[in-house]
Design goal:
By secondary structure, the protein is an alpha/beta fold. It has helices at 5-25, 110-116, 129-140, 172-185, 198-211, 225-231, 242-245, 250-253; strands spanning 32-42, 47-57, 60-66, 78-80, 85-86, 90-95, 119-124, 148-151, 155-157, 166-168, 189-192, 214-217.
Length: 258
């Protein structure tokens, strides 16, 4: 079939675009790290896959496959991982990264310790939001070593919070304002503590649904676990309220402190 005129121009432009796209998709050698002869632990099936080659491109896994058929630039940085095992990164689902002055030096101590112990993601259940967000930005930009961070920012607690990194909540108005503010500032979810008054608890759940942000944490002393479940709380930390709610004597237990 003969191509001429405008069709030929279009075909030429398309060829150049495809060529540039293919060229752009080819990674630079310095962006690669090749892990050779490693045993991959398949956590879905519980099986071990020996003699695998894993090719990393910057912060992504580009491929996993048998070492004997792996294809990559031979001048790419590589490690001989014979006798070593590779697992998916772990998540620590309850940490406090910046908790008042409880953990001095956390940026230089806690963050790298997570990574060297295989923890590549953390759920931060109460911290100073501005500081944690600055760390998260530095980590994502590759300027700081640390895990992926999912954070609530400061916890919401009663009129007299017991812990640092907390916002005092006394009224439903406080609750609505605090949830909206945390959402605006970039918190990933809302963390509840134990001393929030009953009316304010349900104001938190109402505002969280309005803002489209999850709420998680303690079952406050003023409510039951079943009520928080019905309201849509995503996680129940430390099983607070769960033991009481699992007993036929729940009413008696709830008369005391949880």
């Amino acid at each position: 079939m003969k191509i001429g005129g405008r069709s030929a121009v279009h075909a030429g432009i398309l060829f150049l675009m495809l060529s540039e796209s293919i060229h752009a998709q080819k990674p630079a050698v310095d962006d690669l790290l090749v892990l050779n002869h490693v045993t991959v632990v398949d956590v879905r099936t519980g099986t071990l896959q020996s003699e695998q080659t894993v090719i990393l491109e910057r912060n992504h896994i580009a491929s996993v496959g048998p070492s004997k058929s792996a294809r990559y630039p031979r001048n790419a940085p590589s490690l001989n991982c014979h006798g070593l095992f590779l697992i998916p990164g772990l998540w620590d689902m309850h940490v406090h990264l910046v908790f008042g002055d409880w953990f001095p030096g956390a940026q230089n101590i806690s963050l790298p310790l997570f990574v060297v112990n295989g923890v590549t993601g953390v759920r931060d259940m109460g911290s100073e939001l501005d500081m944690v967000e600055s760390w998260r930005n530095e980590i994502e930009a590759g300027r700081l070593s640390g895990p992926r961070i999912y954070t609530s920012g400061p916890m919401l607690d009663g009129p007299k919070p017991r812990f640092p990194s907390s916002v005092a909540i006394a009224t439903p108005e406080d609750a609505h304002r605090a949830v909206a503010d945390l959402k605006r500032r970039g918190a990933d979810f809302i963390k509840l503590q134990s001393l929030i008054p009953r009316a304010a608890v349900f104001a938190i759940t109402e505002e969280a649904k309005k803002q489209g942000i999850a709420f998680e944490g303690h079952v406050p002393d003023a409510v039951r676990a079943s009520e928080m479940s019905t309201a849509g709380m995503k996680s129940f930390e430390h099983l607070i309220g769960i033991f009481e709610g699992s007993s036929p004597a729940e009413d008696d237990f709830l008369k005391g402190n949880k």
